[in-house]
């Protein structure tokens, strides 16, 4: 009988605090892997430095980015972006219909909100912007340049929001704990703007090198992708939106063989690979919550994406190598930013708006742009008086907020023997299924592990030692002492 090893299995599941109810485990095909004793030390050496993220537990984010949840529609993103009585304006990646979940979507939304304010207000009016992330600072910059009296209220003691660049003497280059990639460069000037400021980027598109638990390098067949495509095609004919998980089950697409092939990987394992390596990182959510009607995979197919996931007409993705926050520093230059200030209540009327801060202080403004993440809006820690219109409340409730966390590891020297910049694993049940190898990009022995969806929520509760232990165990297939090619069957 096949068995599965669940790392850190004693850790309880984590709900997004005041954000969503506990997530039910997502049914997945069983992975074909012989478990290792959880007490056995990892073959992978301990890193010289480590940094991790826990975006779901961050009270000022409550997740990493929005995603198409079951039952949510693109029209609800548009509804969330609409002004309320020309006093409240909303921006942020969750209000973008075509670039949600991206820095470009956040910047575009901030600029759009600024245009809406300019159309409704008189030059010189006092405008409050809540949130000093990309959306908030883009809006503030355009409004101040247009002659408005602008101030930004930020809950953190830093600017950037979900862009979090860390420059530390322990690391050979600035590391990105939040956004790190410029998506679809043909649709944005972000990469050019970074280059103009001396920040390097590098192409970041391609199929990852896939390895089995034994360390064998294997070609990725289209088994999993075809199963998902079949499920999405079936779902498109249904009278109501269902989750990708339900579409896979009800269409029969998930009924794949669990018998191992010669390489020790079954067809069911390849479906699990498509889910955990491809779908979950795109949304930060399990397939039990992802919409089959508006799935990331289906959107890419409709847009003519190539096999590498890049749209033929939209340009490549590029990874940022020298400081995403440089853009924010320029945007915030000369802007009045009130840091470490949490807005708990926004009152608005025909005569203006009033903000109440967590310390009891109040601020007044003619109009307000709200750019806090969707996850924070879901917590209801920010009160609106009067309550938001039904369309706004409905959009906030329906749209999903996913989680993608990272671990940055710096080693004395590489313990791996592959030059591939992107790694993945198949037929395993480890938490970190995707890794970025920074050696070919920077020359430094640094790895970045990605953990998403249910695994990210669970690991957000553990301490650094357990988090690191899970990451190192997940790296064992890439340890140089294991084989690096598919064994030839006799």
TrEMBL record:
**Upper taxonomic classification of the species?**
Bacteria, Bacillati, Actinomycetota, Actinomycetes, Micrococcales
Among its keywords, does the record have DNA-binding? no
Q: Which organism is it from?
A: Cryobacterium cryoconiti
| Compositional bias of kind Polar residues | 29-41
Signal peptide bounds? 1-20
UniProt keyword annotation of Iron-sulfur present: no
What terms describe the molecular function in GO for this protein? oxidoreductase activity
Q: Which UniProt keywords apply?
A: Signal
Task: Note the PANTHER family from the entry.
Answer: FLAVIN MONOAMINE OXIDASE, LYSINE-SPECIFIC HISTONE DEMETHYLASE 2
Q: Which residues form the Amine oxidase domain?
A: 42-118, 134-480
Instruction: Kindly provide the name given to this protein in its UniProt entry.
Output: FAD-binding protein
InterPro entries recorded: Amino_oxidase, FAD/NAD-bd_sf, Flavin_monoamine_oxidase
For region Disordered, the annotated ranges are: 25-47
Q: Which Pfam families match?
A: Amino_oxidase
